[in-house]
Design goal:
470 residues, M1 Pyruvate Kinase, Domain 3, Pyruvate Kinase, Chain: A, domain 1, 3 domains, six-stranded mixed sheet, 17 helices
Length: 470
């Protein structure tokens, strides 16, 4: 079960990758987490993929995580006269809340919450930012704007509002049905789209409870403003660079990405970098040099995982793309500069017994050349604290439930296995030895560092560290 890298790979499942045979190939090529994109496909489609993943998990005896990605609200213009209208720079446009087949003087925008929140000077971006407008006047039933960048405006194109915080739930009626379905299936992570503020996370948390882990997709400028409050409320975040790169200038995205990775490392939450990482491999057998560098940069920054979207969902070279992603991560993590860069970005250790113990285990493992850090964890929190240290020594997390083992698949450097609770100190040592050798992390004579909490089986009590010889 051993992977020769620490950062994880998330792959989106689509028509090119949904068969049981292809899912197995992708997992063996390096996928750790499969993403089900609920913007596409029916419940039956997703259920078939989910069941195939669980069957694969049983066949390979290895936990595999499933991430459900909810669509979120989609803001679009209505229908346009003749299907499209030409918009030139400097043209004046009026948006209205009702009507169909609009011209530039009355383009339908069927979202009353926009008219309630938008202000003069705010930007409107249409069709992934290809058309850009500035609001010159507005009221409860109109928005006047002037085109800064022209183009063709056509039916039902998407609208981005980078300056406007909308009183709009991130969970549409469709999302609520999809979420209920995902929870019934037993997904391991749920990604929430259209997050603007902390209360959006709290709204989703009420529906989810402890049934799955919650990931916030950071794709709105307002989420960046509240990020210090949003991250602690989540179980992880996704840097959704596609929409984020529309709503903020693209030259700001790399810096923001580094900030988000840094914040998550500081708090100890997984962070996934997503969108167009190996995009050219949708139709080509090799990436561009810039794409390879993009993936490597995320790894040097300490991202927990990198994600494939179209590349694995509809690409012509699905397996080759995963193999390439795996190879880039491996080469980056084994480069001579990697440890120095990761160490330079290492967050300070918070002065709590659990965090100090995790940091100490990482330091000791490095010093004695341990083959693994083995943690017996019921909640996964100890494994998360070790992952925060970004130690080169792999972490083997032994946890009593399959659900917890799957959720830990997204954590940097952690490989998890479900095994019954232990009852004694000697049993702890025996189980650590057994699973370390069985998983391929070490052989007789090798040393490992074992972390556990006494009394056993009680979350949050990690208080014991031991060096064990296999």
């Amino acid at each position: 079960m051993k992977r020769n890298r620490r950062a994880k790979i998330v792959a989106t499942v689509g028509p090119a990758s949904s068969s049981p045979e292809m899912l197995k190939k992708l997992f063996l090529a390096g996928v750790d987490v499969f993403r089900l994109n609920f913007s596409h496909g029916s419940h039956d489609d997703h259920a078939k993929v989910f069941n195939a993943i669980r069957a694969l998990e049983k066949e390979l005896e290895r936990p595999i995580a499933v991430l459900q990605d909810l669509q979120g609200p989609k803001i679009r213009v209505g229908t346009i006269k003749d299907g499209k209208q030409q918009l030139k720079k400097g043209d004046k446009v009026r948006f209205v809340p009702t009507g169909e087949n609009g011209k530039l003087s009355n383009i339908p925008l069927h979202h009353p919450e926009i008219f309630a929140a938008i202000e003069t000077g705010h930007k409107l971006m249409i069709d992934d930012g290809r058309l850009r407008l500035t609001v010159t006047d507005c009221g409860k039933d109109f928005i006047d704007a002037v085109a800064d960048v022209g183009g063709v405006i056509s039916d039902r194109k998407g609208v981005n509002l980078p300056d406007t915080i909308l009183e709009l739930s991130p969970l549409t009626e469709k999302d609520r049905k999809d979420l209920a379905f995902g929870l019934e299936l037993g997904v391991d992570w749920m990604a929430l789209s259209f997050v603007q503020k902390p209360s959006d996370i709290e709204e989703a948390r009420k529906l989810i409870g402890t049934k799955t882990r919650l990931m916030a997709k950071i794709e709105k400028p307002s989420a960046l403003e509240f990020i210090e409050d949003i991250v602690p409320l989540t179980d992880g975040i996704m840097v959704a660079r596609g929409d984020l790169g529309v709503e903020i200038p693209p030259e700001e995205v790399p810096g923001r990405q580094k900030e988000l990775i840094r914040i998550c490392r500081l708090i100890g939450k997984p962070v996934v970098v997503a969108t167009q990482m190996l995009d050219s491999m949708v139709a080509a057998p090799a990436p561009t040099r810039a794409e390879a560098s993009d993936v490597a940069t995320a790894i040097y920054d300490g991202a927990s995982a990198v994600m494939l979207s179209q590349e694995s969902a509809v690409g012509e070279y699905v397996v080759e793309t995963v193999e390439m992603m795996n190879s880039i991560i491996y080469k980056t993590e084994h480069h001579s500069a990697y440890d120095q860069i990761i160490s330079a970005l290492q967050p300070d250790v918070q002065k709590t017994p659990q965090r100090v113990l995790a940091a100490s285990s990482a330091a000791i493992a490095r010093t004695i050349g341990a083959k693994a850090i083995v943690t017996l964890t019921s909640s996964g929190s100890t494994a998360a604290r070790i992952a925060r240290q970004r130690v080169a020594v792999p972490t083997l997390a032994i946890t009593p439930t399959a659900a917890q083992a799957r959720q830990l698949c997204l954590f940097w450097g952690v490989q998890a296995i479900a095994s019954p609770d232990i009852k004694s100190y000697d049993e702890m040592v025996d189980m650590a030895r057994l699973h370390t050798k069985r998983a391929g992390f070490g052989v007789e004579g090798d040393k490992i560092v074992v972390l556990a909490g006494i009394p056993f089986g009680r979350p949050g009590t990690t208080n014991n560290m031991r060096i064990v010889t296999l």
